[in-house]
Structures are given as structure tokens and as C-alpha cells.
Design brief:
The chain is mainly β and 143 residues long. It is built from one helix and eight strands; from the N terminus they run αββββββββ.
Length: 143
């Protein structure tokens, strides 16, 4: 009888220990982000040109040297009532130097100089773990 009592007490203690060990009293921290994004609206003023190309770029240095961190060609069909919504995603956490909107009247050329800067945000843009999703609107003016 003493053996049965001892086994019963040990069984109950084991169940209580397991129940308490499985309980999670700690709050989980949110997962760390791996990438950030920059998005916003380009507000165009003036008539859209009939020829050429418009390009928005995210640059790691200004004036740009080398390829941009991100780019998008914008067409007149992308323009919704004078506004184009852009997004650069999956960005590494770092400082970026500029977002530029350029108009290339004769079409885009790698390392070309036949363009006009029609809109920009030229200042340090820090994409960090704590500041991962930024919104930056830009005014662009066609002359």
C-alpha cells in the first residue's frame, strides 16, 4: 500500500511539473525585420511629354555614381490624375542619398547626360530596423 501511495504521489507531482514546465509566461519579441521599404507618391505638374522616358531612381550616393539601388520607368499610363505611386522594397538597412525623378527626352542611356531632373528628395534617407518603412512624396514638374 505504501508503494502505491508513493507511486501515486510521484505520478501527480510529475503531471504538475510537466504542466508548469509547458506554461509560457514570457512574452515573445516580434521577429526582426530583414529588409525595409521606401514608398510614396510622385505628384506630376505640367503636361506629360509625348516622347522620351521618365525614370525614378533610389541612389546610394548623390550625384549618382554606379547603378541605383532601385529604379522604375514611369509611363503616362502609370500616371493616375497626375500622381504615380512608387515603392522600393526589399531594401538593405543602410543610408540612401537621394530619390530622383528624371526626364530623358531622347530615351534613357546608361551613363547618359541628356536628362532633366524634374523632381527629387536629396538628403540622407536612413532605412533601419526601427525605421524600416518610409513614405516620401515627391513633386515633379514637366517644363
Amino acid at each position: 500500500m505504501k508503494l502505491i501511495k508513493t507511486l501515486l504521489v510521484l505520478s501527480l507531482l510529475s503531471v504538475m511539473f510537466l504542466a508548469m514546465a509547458c506554461e509560457d509566461n514570457e512574452t515573445e519579441e516580434p521577429p526582426l525585420l530583414e529588409f525595409g521599404s521606401i514608398s510614396g507618391a510622385v505628384n506630376f505638374t505640367g503636361p506629360w511629354p509625348e516622347t522620351g522616358e521618365v525614370l525614378i531612381t533610389l541612389d546610394t550616393q548623390y550625384p549618382p555614381m554606379g547603378p541605383p539601388a532601385g529604379f522604375v520607368f514611369i509611363t503616362s499610363t502609370d500616371d493616375q490624375n497626375g500622381v504615380y505611386n512608387y515603392s522600393f522594397s526589399n531594401l538593405s538597412f543602410r543610408d540612401y542619398s537621394a530619390i530622383t525623378v528624371t526626364y530623358w527626352p531622347q530615351g534613357y542611356e546608361t551613363a547618359g547626360t541628356n536628362y532633366s531632373l524634374i523632381g527629387s528628395q536629396i538628403e540622407t534617407i536612413s532605412v533601419t530596423q526601427n525605421n524600416a518603412d518610409l513614405t516620401i512624396d515627391i513633386e515633379a514638374i514637366f517644363n
